[in-house]
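Our working data are protein records whose layout never changes between entries. An example says more than a description, so a record of this kind follows.
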Amino acid sequence: TPTLEQRCAALKIRTAARTVYMKSRCDEQPCPLTDPRVTVAWLKLNAKCPNEGAAASQAAVDACVATYVGAITGDPECVRYKLRAVGNTTYQKSECVRRATLQGRAPDAGCLAQADVQFARAIARADQEGTCTGTVDDLESLVDDCVPTLVTGLSTTTSTSSSTSSSTTIAPHTTTTSLPVGQCPPTGTAPCHADG
């Protein structure tokens, strides 16, 4: 059974990752996000877990989105698809970390690899919509840098690297997982949109 500390940490991870996901889908950047679902989610986090550093997490969210927006420029449709891809993958990988946090273990390598496969497919789709900056490797690196910042302040260390570490990192993966074109991960993995 997860401890209160683990449940609070998991709630913070999900709230922050969902906010990145939603902000990355805004047509206007920087995103003037006023979605009441996001506001309510942060209020719930502050009420249930006042010591989980929600303010720092919100700042990390904004920093992640700003980094993504700055890295992707070019044809509007291509940019839109890639921003959605990085937002979705941030959520997917954060969910891998969240589930691991609840279980007190390292994130599952298969879960992270599946997110990488979906991400590569989404970026390939984006490149068909026009020309814009951001390769799979470059943008995946940004996502892997972002996710640990969303979980900073956790009392329980969760490492996603293959070696022992005192910080949360997302290591490059060589594991591949095949999914049919357009198929999202299993229900509950992420708010996946097969269109990218």
